[in-house]
Predict the structure.
Amino acid sequence: MEYALRVALALNCTINHHNIFARKNYFYPDLPKGYQISQYELPLGVNGWLDVELESGETKRIGIRRVHMEEDTGKLTHQDDGTSLVDYNRAGVPLLEIVTEPDIRSGEEARAYAMKVRQILRYLGVNSGDMEKGVLRVEPNISIRPVGTAKFGTRTELKNLNSFRVLADGTAFEIARQTAVLQSGGTVIQETRGWHEGRRETFSQRTKEEAEDYRYFPEPDLPPLHLDDAFVEQVRASLPELPDTKIARYMAEYELSEYDARVLAEERLVGEWFDTAVSKANAAGTTPKSVANWMINELFRLMNEAKLNIDAIQVTPTALVELIGLVEKQTINNNTAKEVLAEMFATGTAPAQIVESKGLAQISDNTAIQAIIDQVLADNPEQVSRYLEGQDKLRGFFVGQVMRQTKGKANPALVNQLLDAALNA
Amino acid sequence: MSLTLADVEKIANLARLELTEAEKKQYLEQLSAILHYAERLNELDLTDIPPTSHAIAQQNIMRPDVAEPSLPMEDLLHNAPQQKENQFVVQAVLDDGGSA
């Protein structure tokens, strides 16, 4: 119930304080007791909304008609021999149903909406969002109508869609199928349809022979549930910062690009890791922007290669900002820092310790670098004269030689500065 | 309000009951009598009385959300007329459009 309230609040719903449960009566093998406990007249949440980013870059507000609690039903597996297998393991388990307003216009919009809902459910910690395991199920109701008319046509409902791609494809197929049926003078039948992956088309699963008559009545075994304001506000206060708020904050406070902000806010754990790192960035002498760059460009690459999620890595937010701090303070240069990060990732060792034990500290000593530059120029008189004759590209050769002599540890800015001075003297 | 025979047949169908003609007539009388009895409420002025959903004045009865061991599968499937892969077997309830 608390999970349901979290979802209803996160979807901007008005909360009904007085909740009663109803019995929805029907006979079907997925429900051994002949009725499903649901909410009918007074769902937990009503009149909410969710802003969804579409592929076009537009944001579309999808209305949420209701969020209510009910119980799950058994899982039916249909076999070829005219029988079905029923697995009752999930029958009676609490289920949350979220119903939208008829605002979604395509399979792609349905997919974008469902993915956003999943992201929020995961942020709220109420659902793993694994569609293949059936813990998150999306059942689009689809109807079409002539352009310019207000009345919706007869709808069909798609079930057993086990991925976001199938949700988009199945919805698109169904829109095309209904269009063809109507254009050839036929009528759309109200029914439940499934998705046939092999044939990549929908098929009729259950025709509603007569108008459903569920004879809802208040569930006598469950007394009413009254949620007082204090409780609702307590749950509201416990909600984590949600993706849209996080993204806006990252862009406004840290001057991240929208792309970077979205990447970091995609998953709650990543966002929290970043937030922790940022809280320590100032003390370490670095900025949120640098932390974001290091996470997106380097840390995520290492995580992808190792196939690890952020909660499974050995690098801590503190260690990463310490590493970046070493770069900012010019103790090590960028390339060395990447090597150090790889070592931190592999072993969990603190960056300062790696720099120390491997002798990676950057050479920022003017005299030392000057001596190496002098040596390089003395060893390559031919290149020097060609450079002085105008072959500017040789400048890179000298930088390379200095870096080689110092095993990459020379402070690049200092090398450039001193080299220019020596060559132009 | 009196019921018709068609009402009784519909209710029986929804409840998956097969009734003889004599039973239909009997239930028609009994159900109609129950409705007549309930109609007495209409004699009262209920303008300011909120609808009652439950007969007992209790709310917010909670229990800790703790997982408990389930019944053993053998016991659960003991009375199944047919079983397969540790599941109940029932007659197909929908046309799945042919095999994959």
The CA atoms of residues 195 and 202 of chain A lie 4 Å apart. Chain A touches chain B through 35 residues (CB under 8 Å).
